[in-house]
Amino acid sequence: MIDTTKRENNMIAPEASAGMAKAVAAVRAHTDEMRRGGQTPRACIMTFGCQQNEADSERLAGLADAMGYELSASPAGCSLVLVNTCAVREHAEKKALSSIGQLKHEKAKNPSMVIGVGGCMVSQQHRADALKKSYPYVDFSFCTTELWRVPTFLQTRLDGGPRRFPLVSESLSETDFSEDVPVVRASRARAWVSVMYGCNNFCSYCIVPYVRGRERSRLPEDIMREVKDLVATGCRDITLLGQNVNSYGHDLSRGVKFSDLIREISKLDGDFRLRFMTSHPKDATDDLISAMAESRVASRHFHLPLQSGSDRVLAAMNRRYTAEKYLSIVEKLRAAMPDIVITSDIIVGFPGETEEDFEMTLDVMRKAQFDMIYSFIFSPRKGTPAANMEELPEETKSARFSRLIECQNAISKEKNDASVGKTLRVLTDDALEPGQLPTGRTDGNKLVHLSGHAEPGEFYDTIITRADTFGLYGDIIKA
Ligand code: SAH
Ligand code: SF4
Ligand code: F3S
Hints:
By secondary structure, this protein is an alpha/beta fold.
């Protein structure tokens, strides 16, 4: 029987891609004209949020470059500013809104500046509406599904067309993407490769499924082409991205899964590391653990968000696993790869979380022995089920947050201390300020402060001499 819910691919029609190319060429003619008039067309891409947004911004940078703009780190004096926003917590939205607010002054100084705002925050109707009404200097807004349409929105505006704000439900229902969007990467040595977009999980606190739409996988051959190009050009660290990489391929009719990608990439020659994020504990399979353990290039790092250690809270969060199931995955990972670094995400102060629930989280943390965690105070997100649940008092949330950090800091220090005296292979960062001492990352993604000179974006064998809660210190012994 043919499963009609699955698709051959999730790509826009060739005519739509041709439309994008036409708009790119039209804007290019405009920037060429500016150059002939003695001006330098510059574009600034401002990014908030997670790796997914960073990856999307590298595509926006690719489009800006193809349209003839020079990329600039600051909006001052730019002809085009694109802001890529995040909505995961209230704080993220506030930061993006404050940056958009400041653009008012830039545009007052430079009225021909075109401002476009995209990403997760403005993929909520109330935010798109507020932008249209209260930020009259913003020219257009685009949803997370509309990156490839940005040249068209820009061209329309440059041609004197109206401001553009989407009906979000319509934009988010058209989720097909283009494989023809160019890319300008922020780093030579490290790269993000999206393997899929969207999320189907609807954890009860999370806005992501509402602003990024349903899961859509890229075709394996398109992913492999991108990865091969990166390896061929000397990229050293490749991270496969998806909100839940373990459901990669489930939407495609051809029966491909995430572990197949790991196995294919592991066959490539080249000196590089392979990472991926994020894995949902409900889908972290034995097959994935084996693919990783057998791989020459897969890093010994696994990010496995726990969120809470209480089964009652996990159920209220709609996470669909128990603390016991979670700990069994940790055990399997350590059995297969004894040196593995395990990191996690934890939310404190979810509605209804009792002192007992919170202590269960501390208990699982002590058992799991994470190397590091990202910890968050619950932030209600409009339109999610948890936003209608009764919130805990601020004091309770912040007191638990401090206790969580204190508990983890002691574990992190102990875990990092265990690396002292070892020789680890460190990949140096390639975005250092002048005069800054080099830093880098171990295979397990731990931060290392290096003494002496090191070239950016290269591997160095390093002897670890000291450790603290947040990282390691080491001396390079050889390249
Ligand atoms: N898809 C990934 C990442 C989601 S967002 C995953 O499932 O792990 C990254 C983290 O932000 C989440 O893991 C969660 O810990 C946190 N987060 C998401 N929504 C939140 C909210 N409303 N309040 C506080 N933290 C939240
Ligand atoms: Fe959000 Fe859950 Fe999807 Fe992660 S898996 S993006 S936490 S809904
Ligand atoms: Fe990422 Fe923020 Fe969107 S965390 S998926 S940019 S809401």
